[in-house]
Amino acid sequence: MSKPVLSLLAAACALAVPALAHSRQVTLNVQLKDYGGNGAYVAAYLTDAKGAYVRTLWVAGGKAKYHKHLSDWSRLSAGDAKRLDGVTGASVGAGRVLKVTADLADALIDAGYEIRVDAAVEDMRDSPSEVRLPLSSGNAGKAQPGKQYIQSLTYQLN
Q1: Hey, is 58 helix, strand or coil?
Q2: How far apart are alpha carbons 105 and 60 in whole angstroms?
Q3: CB neighbours (10 Å) of residue 103?
Q4: Three-state SS annotation for 4-28
């Protein structure tokens, strides 16, 4: 290849790579129902268009021995040695809101990815994939109801 073509190719790559690396903050609001039990363990995570685990966004509930009750998240993320690095906090009380902010690549939005939330409460039924909501600009701000413990999941794209 000639030097001008190589220079043009290098310049195009230099401009394209930062565009692929852009990300934006996604703020999740998980409103729990007033279900009348102990604090809930909650796992918020991202899956791809085929339902494969991508990454953990947050896990509420710090005792690892109970994470198995967040069964879909636990099963899907089992091979991710870093799944809990910097993404854990206290369990969430009935009627409370869990607010989580994460950085996600722009390329994930409107590309078939899905935010999923599992929930479990001590001495009550586990609720795997309690809420599933496609990660799209059209779903931002729209409440998705849960099945058992979660009143609604909403997210904002910042």
Answers
A1: strand
A2: 23
A3: 10
A4: HHHHHHHHHHHHHHHHHHCEEEEEE
Does the pLDDT of residue 11 top 80, yes or no?
Answer: no
Burial category of 134 from C-beta neighbours within 10 Å (exposed 0-12, middle 13-18, buried 19 and up): middle
- The structure's pTM equals 0.85
Q: pLDDT tens-digit profile of 15-69?
A: 444 444 589 999 999 999 999 999 999 999 999 999 999 999 999 998 888 999 9
From residue 32, alpha-carbon distances to 54, 99, 135, 144 in Å are 24, 11, 20, 12
Helix (H, G, I), strand (E, B) or coil at 96: coil
pLDDT of residue 86: 86
Answer yes or no: are the C-beta atoms of 148 and 127 closer than 8 Å.
yes
Q: Residue 113 has which token pair?
A: 């990815």
Rama region for 65: left / alpha / beta (φ>0; ψ in -120 to 50; rest): alpha
Question: Helix, strand, or coil here: 67?
Answer: helix
Integer distance in angstroms from the first to the last C-alpha of the chain?
A: 43
Q: Which DSSP letter does residue 79 get?
A: T
